[in-house]
Amino acid sequence: MATFDAAWAEANAYAPSDTIFIDTLEITNALLSPPIRVCNSFEQLATGEGTFLPFYFELDLPQIEPGSVPQLIIKIGNINKDLREGLRKIKQATGATQVRYRRYRMTDTAT
Length: 111
Hints:
Helix content is about 20%, strand content about 35%. It has about 110 residues and is an alpha+beta fold. The chain starts with a helix and ends with a strand.
């Protein structure tokens, strides 16, 4: 059985040369309205899930293995005022916070 990492590597290898991948994060909590949505891009990204604002972040994707709990490590620097305020609200929250990572495959229209 192929692992998720192997399947993703194969999908990337066979993608057309004008394909770009945009990582997104959606952070939801009862105290946040609307959710925090950011994308690793220079331009905002409109999807069926909502509009993601451009913001640089780094991700260490989890290893997907049977019987393990995957952990996504997010590294963000120089956060803006809106993101800082949202993260402060989450820190004070007693309810659950959900962070959803998605990778969108796009065609590079600049080429």
